[in-house]
Design a protein that fits this description.
With 894 residues, this protein is of the alpha+beta class. The chain is 30% helix and 19% strand.
C-alpha cells in the first residue's frame, strides 16, 4: 500500500530543496567534541566543557533540545526551559566527561525519541524535566566517588523525580509543506503541587561570519508581523555569505516564527561571551552575547539583551507561573517562509493530527504481520531514534588544523595530535550518527549497520549514507575509510561491503528495484579500500592481518591501536576473519555485476581466490610453528609475534575467535553455471589447490543440489565453535551472545600483569583500555550478534536439516542452524519486550521504568547490554546500531 509518506519519499530528488530540507539535524551535544577542540593537548572535554557551552559560539555545529534546522544548518530552532529552580537555563542536555563519569561520556537526562517519518513530515520527542533544581554537582561528585567501579549513579538515583515532581514536555513537529513547519509543545505537570515553567522557543543563525580577520556580513532576526492572535520573529539571511563549500547557491530567504501573544521577544547575537570564556572584554559593537537569555531570565541581569530588537539569536519568552497538578499547557508555534496569514496558528493542531495519522499509516505497511503490538512499538521507537539521530555533520579538517585566521592560529602542537593526514575531509553532509550526545560524529562501522535498518523505511537515504564514506571528500586517497572523528586513522571493521550488498538486496526484494548503478559505484571505491587493507595491514605478506582497534575497545589485555614498544605485532583472528568476510562480500557483488558485464567475472575470481588464501592462512601459517586456530581448545586466538620469532597466544575466548564465522557464503553450482569463466577457474582451483581449499571450501549435496560452502572452518571446527557459542556457561545468554565467554569468570586470562575476566556489566577501571566507555568483556552487543544470526541463517541455507549440533543449551538434543538463528534473534528482541511479569529486561532494576505507567513503555536503546540480565548499559541513546532490533523484528516476524 502506498501511503502519503511513500508519495513524499518519491518526490525527493535531492536533500536541498525537498521534504528532507528541514529535519532534526541539530546535535544534542556540540560542546567537548573534536571539532570544537582548539586546545594544545587534544583534551576536547576540558577545552569546551558544559559550563562554557552556553557562553561560547560554536564553530562547526549547534546543539539544542529537540532542535531542528535546515539541511546546511544556517538557521536553527530549539526550545529551552526553566523551572525557576535551576541555576542554568536548560538550553542543552547535561552529561559527564570521561573523568567525571563512571563509564565514560555519559548523558544524565531522560529524553525519548518517540516518533518520526523518514521525511520528518512528523516528529515527536519527550523530555522529562525535574521541577527541583537539576543536581549537576551531585551527579559529578557521586560518579567520581565510584572511581569506575559498580553501577553508574543516575539522575533517578538523586531523588529529583520523587513524588513525580517533574514535567513531561512533549515536542511535536509537522510539516504542512516542505517549508512550513507546525510546532506544538505540551507540558504536563506530573506532580502533586502547582509548579512554574518558562518555555523559550529559540531561533538563531549558526555563526559562520565571525571567524575571519574581518567579520563577514551577518544575517539578522527582528520582530516580525503581529496581530491579536500572534506575534513573530522574522529571520533574513540575504546579507549572509553562505559557506564556500556548499555546492549550490543556497539561501533560506525570509523565515517567520509565529507564536501566541503574551511572550517577550528577546534579541542578542550568537557571539562568544569573551569576558567569561577568555577573560577579555566583549566587543563594544556587540556587547550582547550568546548567553544573554540565561543571564536575563535566570540571573535577572540587566543590560544583557539587546534593547534594539535585532540580533542573530532570538527567543520568545513564555512564562507559566503556576501549572496545576495533573494539568498541562500547550504552546503552538509555526516556522514558515510564508508571510502573515489571517490566523497562522489556527490549524497547527489540524496539521499535526493529519501528519501523525499519516505516520501511523506508513508504519502499518512497515511492521511485519507476525509482530506483536509490543514488538511493533519497539520497532517504531527504534526507527524514530535512528531518524532523530541525523545530524548536519559540518567539518573542514584543513581549516580546523590551520585555523580560519592567520592572526589567531591554533596551537602548533595540535597538528601532531590527531587527523593531520585527513586534510581532504570536508563535510557538509547530513549523516546518521551513533547518537547525538555521546557520539555526535559518524563512525564507519556504526554507519554500515544504521543503513541496514534505514533501508527498511528509506532505501534511498540508506544508499546515500553508504556512499558518503566512499565519496572523495571522505575516503582517503590511499583507499582508507575514515573510522570516527576522534581519530580518523583508527580502524573499524571492514563491514561496508557487507552493508552495500545487503541494502542492495533489500531494495530489490522489497521494491523490485536492482540499483546496479549504486552497487557499481560503491564496488569501485571498495576496491580501493580492499587494496589499502592488503597493503597496510598485512605487513608480513602472509594473509594474516594486524588490524588494530577494530571497534572492540578493551576485548583483550593490550590497546590494539598501539604498536608494541618491543616491535611485537598482534596477529588478529578477528582482523583476518573480517578480511575473509570482506573478500566474500566483494566476490558476491562482482558476480551480481557480472550478470550485465562479463568483465566482473575476473574480479569475482580474484576475490574468491583471495578468500581462500586468507582463510587457509588462519589455520596454516606456512613454515611457522603456530596458527590462529587452536586445535586443543577448538577456538581461534590472537597471537602476539615477537621480532625474534617467538610468539604468545592470547587464550581469551571472546568474539575475536567467533568473528571468523562471519566469513561464510554459499555458491550453488546451478547459480554460478552461467558465469562460465568464473566457474571454470573455481573448479580448476578446487582441483589443483587442494592444499589451500581442503578446509575452507566445502561441497554440500542437499537433496541432489550441489553447492560450495565457503567457510573458514570445517565441519569439525564449526561444531566445536558452535558448541561454545550455544553453551549457557560460555557465550549463550538469555538475551543473545556474550562478547566474552563466561568461562573466564572463574578462569581469568593473565598476561604481563594484566587480567581479562568475565565482566557482564561495566568494566572495572583497570580494564578500560580505550576511551573508558566501552566493555567487550561479557556484555551483549547488537551488531556482532546480528552478524552471528546472519551467519547461522546462511549455514542453515547451506546445510538444511542435514547438519545439526547437540549442545549443552539443548540438553544434548540436536539443533539446526535455522533454529539457532531464530532463537538468537528472539533472545535479542526479548531485551526490549515485556516478559511474563510485564517487565522489560532493558530497564534492569530501575523501578521507575519497570513500574510507572508514564515510564514503562519508553525505550532507551543502549550501547550494549548486561551479559546475564539484558539490562541496558553504556550510552543510553545509541539507537544507531542498536536499532538493529527493528531489523530482527522485520526479518523474523514476516
Amino acid at each position: 500500500m502506498k501511503t502519503k509518506e511513500h508519495e513524499r519519499l518519491e518526490e525527493i530528488k535531492d536533500d536541498i530543496f525537498s521534504w528532507r530540507r528541514w529535519g532534526p539535524y541539530v546535535a544534542d551535544r556540540s560542546w567537548a567534541t573534536v571539532r570544537e577542540d582548539y586546545s594544545p593537548d587534544g583534551n576536547a572535554w576540558s577545552f569546551l566543557p558544559h559550563d562554557l557551552a552556553r557562553s561560547k559560539a560554536y564553530r562547526w555545529g549547534e546543539d539544542g533540545i529537540a532542535g531542528i534546522c535546515d539541511r546546511f544548518q544556517l538557521l536553527v530552532f530549539a526550545p529551552a526551559f526553566w523551572n525557576e529552580q535551576d541555576p542554568i537555563l536548560k538550553e542543552r542536555l547535561f552529561g559527564l566527561t570521561p573523568q567525571e563519569g563512571n563509564h565514560g561520556e555519559d548523558v544524565k537526562e531522560y529524553y525519548f525519541y518517540l516518533d518520526s517519518t523518514p521525511t520528518h513530515s512528523y516528529m515527536k520527542f519527550l523530555y522529562k524535566y525535574p521541577q527541583a533544581a537539576f543536581p549537576y554537582r551531585r551527579l559529578i561528585e557521586e560518579n567520581v566517588k565510584r572511581a569506575g567501579e559498580g553501577p553508574e549513579f543516575e539522575l533517578l538515583d538523586t531523588g529529583v523525580f520523587a513524588g513525580n515532581r517533574y514535567f513531561d514536555i512533549v515536542i511535536e513537529y509537522a510539516k504542512a509543506t516542505p517549508e512550513d513547519i507546525c510546532i506544538r509543545i505540551q507540558a504536563f505537570n506530573r506532580g502533586s503541587e502547582p509548579a512554574p515553567l518558562h518555555i523559550l522557543p529559540h531561533l538563531w543563525f549558526r555563526n559562520i561570519w565571525s571567524w575571519q580577520e574581518v567579520a563577514g556580513q551577518e544575517p539578522k532576526i527582528e520582530p516580525g508581523p503581529g496581530g491579536s492572535e500572534y506575534l513573530s520573529l522574522l529571520s533574513n539571511d540575504s546579507q549572509l555569505e553562505p559557506p564556500s563549500n556548499i555546492p549550490v547557491h543556497y539561501r533560506l530567504g525570509q523565515r517567520i516564527l509565529y507564536g501566541p501573544p503574551g511572550g517577550e521577544l528577546l534579541f542578542t547575537y550568537n557571539e562568544t561571551n569573551a569576558e567569561r570564556v577568555f577573560g577579555r572584554p566583549n566587543c563594544s559593537r556587540k556587547p550582547y552575547v550568546k548567553d544573554a537569555f540565561h543571564r536575563h531570565v535566570v540571573r535577572k541581569e540587566t543590560g544583557v539583551i539587546n534593547p534594539s530588537p535585532v540580533g542573530t539569536k532570538a527567543a520568545i519568552h513564555y512564562c507559566y507561573k503556576s501549572i496545576a497538578p495533573g494539568a498541562s499547557i500547550t504552546l503552538r508555534l509555526r516556522l514558515t517562509e510564508h508571510g502573515a496569514e489571517l490566523r497562522p496558528l489556527s490549524d497547527v493542531d489540524k496539521v499535526i493530527h493529519q501528519r501523525s495519522a499519516e505516520a501511523d499509516d506508513f508504519y502499518k505497511t512497515i511492521h511485519p504481520p507476525q509482530a506483536s503490538a509490543d514488538e511493533q512499538d519497539v520497532q517504531r521507537q527504534a526507527f524514530a531514534g535512528l531518524l532523530w539521530t541525523k545530524q548536519s555533520y559540518i567539518f573542514d579538517v584543513q581549516k580546523w588544523l590551520e585555523g580560519d585566521c592567520k592572526l589567531w592560529p591554533p596551537p602548533p602542537a595540535r597538528k601532531s595530535i590527531r587527523n593531520v593526514h585527513w586534510r581532504h575531509l570536508n563535510s557538509m553532509r547530513v549523516m546518521t550518527v551513533p547518537d547525538k550526545w555521546e557520539y555526535p560524529w559518524f563512525a564507519a562501522w556504526d554507519l554500515a549497520f544504521h543503513c541496514v535498518t534505514l533501508a527498511i523505511i528509506d532505501p534511498d537515504y540508506a544508499k546515500e549514507q553508504l556512499w558518503v564514506l566512499l565519496f572523495e571528500q571522505f575516503q582517503h586517497p590511499n583507499g582508507q575509510i575514515p573510522a570516527y572523528e576522534w581519530e580518523f586513522s583508527d580502524l573499524n571493521p571492514p563491514v561496508h561491503a557487507w552493508a552495500v550488498w545487503r541494502v542492495y538486496n533489500m531494495e530489490r526484494a522489497r521494491h523490485g528495484r536492482a540499483d546496479r548503478s549504486f552497487l557499481e559505484r560503491c564496488f569501485h571505491k571498495l576496491l580501493m579500500n580492499f587494496a589499502w587493507w592488503i597493503n597496510k595491514k598485512d605487513f608480513a605478506d602472509n594473509n594474516i592481518f594486524e588490524g588494530g582497534f577494530l571497534g572492540l575497545d578493551n576485548i583483550t589485555v593490550v590497546d590494539r591501536s598501539m604498536q608494541g614498544a618491543d616491535g611485537s605485532v598482534l596477529e588478529q583472528a578477528d582482523a583476518t576473519g573480517w578480511m575473509g568476510m570482506f573478500c566474500l562480500n566483494m566476490m558476491r557483488i562482482a558476480l551480481e555485476l557480472a550478470k550485465e558485464n562479463q568483465t566482473y567475472e575476473n574480479l569475482a575470481t580474484k576475490f574468491f581466490q583471495h578468500y581462500v588464501y586468507v582463510a587457509s592462512a588462519m589455520k596454516h601459517m606456512g613454515s611457522r610453528n603456530y596458527q590462529l586456530w587452536d586445535d586443543q581448545d577448538g577456538f581461534f586466538y590472537d597471537v602476539l609475534r615477537y621480532p625474534d620469532g617467538q610468539f604468545r597466544k592470547f587464550r581469551v575466548r571472546s568474539l575475536v575467535g567467533l568473528i571468523p564465522l562471519f566469513a561464510v557464503e554459499r555458491l550453488a553450482v546451478s547459480e554460478i553455471a552461467p558465469f562460465r569463466e568464473f566457474s571454470a577457474r573455481l573448479h580448476w582451483f578446487l582441483k589443483n589447490r587442494q592444499d589451500l581449499v581442503r578446509d575452507v571450501v566445502h561441497t554440500v549435496d542437499r537433496e541432489g543440489q550441489l553447492s560450495h560452502l565457503l567457510t573458514i572452518v570445517n565441519k569439525d571446527q564449526l561444531t566445536r565453535l558452535i558448541d561454545r557459542v550455544w553453551n549457557t556457561e560460555e557465550f549463550l545468554s538469555p538475551y543473545g551472545i556474550r562478547s566474552l565467554s563466561k568461562f573466564h569468570k572463574d578462569q581469568p586470562f593473565h598476561f604481563d600483569g594484566r587480567v581479562v575476566s568475565y565482566e557482564p556489566a561495566e568494566a572495572e577501571r583497570a580494564s578500560k583500555i580505550k576511551g573508558g566507555n566501552s566493555n567487550w568483556r561479557g556484555p551483549i552487543w547488537m551488531p556482532t550478534c546480528f552478524l552471528l544470526v546472519e551467519t547461522m541463517r546462511l549455514l542453515g541455507d547451506a546445510f538444511g536439516s542435514s547438519f545439526s549440533i547437540k549442545t549443552q543449551a539443548t540438553g544434548g538434543q540436536p539443533i539446526g542452524f535455522h533454529e539457532m538463528a531464530a532463537e538468537t534473534a528472539n533472545r535479542l528482541i526479548r531485551i526490549f519486550t515485556r516478559d511474563g511479569s510485564g517487565r522489560r529486561p532493558v530497564h534492569g532494576a530501575a523501578s521507575k521504568f519497570q513500574e510507572d505507567p508514564l515510564w514503562q513503555d519508553l525505550l532507551l536503546f543502549y550501547e550494549y547490554f548486561h551479559g546475564d540480565t539484558g539490562a541496558g548499559l553504556g550510552a543510553s541513546h545509541q539507537t544507531g546500531w542498536t536499532a538493529l532490533v527493528a531489523s530482527l523484528i522485520d526479518d523474523w516476524r514476516r
